[in-house]
TrEMBL record:
<keyword id="KW-0813">Transport</keyword>
<feature type="signal peptide">
    <location>
        <begin position="1"/>
        <end position="21"/>
    </location>
</feature>
<dbReference type="Pfam" id="PF04069">
    <property type="entry name" value="OpuAC"/>
</dbReference>
<dbReference type="InterPro" id="IPR007210">
    <property type="entry name" value="ABC_Gly_betaine_transp_sub-bd"/>
</dbReference>
<keyword id="KW-1003">Cell membrane</keyword>
<protein>
    <submittedName>
        <fullName>Glycine betaine ABC transporter substrate-binding protein</fullName>
    </submittedName>
</protein>
<keyword id="KW-0472">Membrane</keyword>
<keyword id="KW-0732">Signal</keyword>
<feature type="domain" description="ABC-type glycine betaine transport system substrate-binding">
    <location>
        <begin position="35"/>
        <end position="284"/>
    </location>
</feature>
Length: 296
C-alpha cells in the first residue's frame, strides 16, 4: 500500500514536472516568436545605422529587438544563414558582398532594398587635383604608392585589388593597405588637416564623404561597378515568423539626405551606446523621412 502510494506520488510529481517543462518550452517559444536579433559590423556604418533604425521601428510594431555586434562579413553572413541572427540591413548582395551569399541563397530571404544607389569608389580630398583613376598610376609618388583601405574582409577590398587596380595599372604602382574603417578615417583626417595627398577606398552612402570633402575619382572604364542596392536580408523563415516586420522592411526606404543626416548623427553627434537616442532625435527632426516611418 505504501509502495503504491509512493509510486502514485512520484507519477504525479513527474507529470507536474513535465507539465511545467511544457509550459516553459511554450513560454520560450512564445518569447522567441516575439524577439528579433539584428546583426551588424560596427565599422560598417550603413548596416549599423539602418539596423538601429529598424530596431526602433520593429519595437514600435511590438517586438523585442536585440542588436548583435559581429566582427566581420563572413561571420555575419554565416550567423544569418544559420539563424543565430535574424536580420542584416547592410547587405550589398548584388556584387560587393555577393561571395558571402553564393551557393547558399536558400538560407536567406531578401526583404527589400532600402537604398538603390550604393557605390564603391576610390576617393581623394577635394583639394587634390587628380580627377580620374586613369591619372593615379603616373602620380603614385604623390601618394607614397599607397591606397588606404579598410577591413580586409570587406568585399570592396577584394574588388578593388582584383578588378579596379589591374584595370588602371595601379597594381604595379600602388599597394592596397588593409586597416580598418576607423584607421582609414584617421588617415584622412590627418591628411586633410595638413593638406597632404591621399587616396582611399570609399563608398556611398557614407557620412565621411561630406565631412572630409572626399571626391570620387572618375571611373571611365566602369570597373568599380554600376550602383547597386543595399538590401535588408533575413534568415530563411523570417517572413513566416514575423510577417508584419517583413512587410515593414519591404517598404523601408531612405534617400541620400535622410540617410546621411541619421548616419552623421549616430556616428558623430552621439556616443557609442547612444544609438537609440540618435534615432529618436532624428525621427523628431525628420518625421516624414519616408512613408510609413513610425513615430511616438
Amino acid at each position: 500500500m505504501q509502495f503504491r502510494t509512493l509510486t502514485s506520488a512520484l507519477a504525479l510529481t513527474a507529470a507536474a514536472a513535465l507539465a511545467l517543462a511544457g509550459c516553459s518550452a511554450e513560454d520560450a517559444a512564445d518569447a522567441s516568436a516575439d524577439s528579433i536579433t539584428i546583426g551588424y559590423v560596427p565599422s560598417w556604418s550603413d548596416g549599423k545605422t539602418s539596423g538601429f533604425l529598424l530596431k526602433d521601428q520593429f519595437e514600435k510594431l511590438g517586438y523585442d529587438v536585440e542588436m548583435q555586434e559581429l566582427t566581420e562579413a563572413a561571420v555575419l553572413y554565416t550567423s544569418l544563414a544559420e539563424g543565430s541572427i535574424d536580420v542584416f540591413s547592410g547587405a550589398w548582395t548584388e556584387r560587393t558582398q555577393a561571395e558571402y551569399v553564393a551557393g547558399r541563397e536558400d538560407d536567406f530571404e531578401d526583404l527589400g532594398t532600402w537604398y538603390d544607389n550604393g557605390t564603391i569608389t576610390l576617393s581623394v580630398p577635394d583639394y587634390v587635383d587628380i580627377t580620374s583613376l586613369e591619372e593615379l598610376a603616373p602620380s603614385a609618388d604623390r601618394f607614397d604608392g599607397k591606397i588606404i583601405g579598410i577591413e580586409p574582409s570587406a568585399g570592396q577590398m577584394k574588388h578593388t585589388e582584383e578588378v579596379g587596380m589591374p584595370a588602371y595599372g595601379l597594381d604595379s604602382e600602388f599597394s592596397l593597405v588593409s586597416s580598418s574603417t576607423a584607421a582609414m578615417l584617421a588617415s584622412v583626417s590627418d591628411a586633410v588637416e595638413t593638406g597632404d595627398d591621399i587616396v582611399v577606398t570609399s563608398w556611398r552612402p557614407f557620412w565621411a564623404n561630406e565631412v572630409y570633402g572626399l571626391r570620387d575619382l572618375e571611373d571611365p572604364k566602369g570597373v568599380m561597378g554600376t550602383p547597386e542596392g543595399i538590401h535588408v536580408l533575413a534568415t530563411q523563415g523570417f517572413t513566416e515568423r514575423f510577417s508584419d516586420a517583413a512587410d515593414y522592411a519591404a517598404d523601408f526606404k531612405l534617400n541620400d539626405e535622410a540617410f546621411s543626416t541619421l548616419e552623421n548623427a549616430m556616428t558623430n553627434e552621439y556616443e557609442v551606446g547612444e544609438e537609440a537616442e540618435a534615432v529618436d532625435a532624428w525621427i523628431d527632426e525628420h518625421p516624414d523621412a519616408f512613408p510609413g516611418l513610425l513615430a511616438e
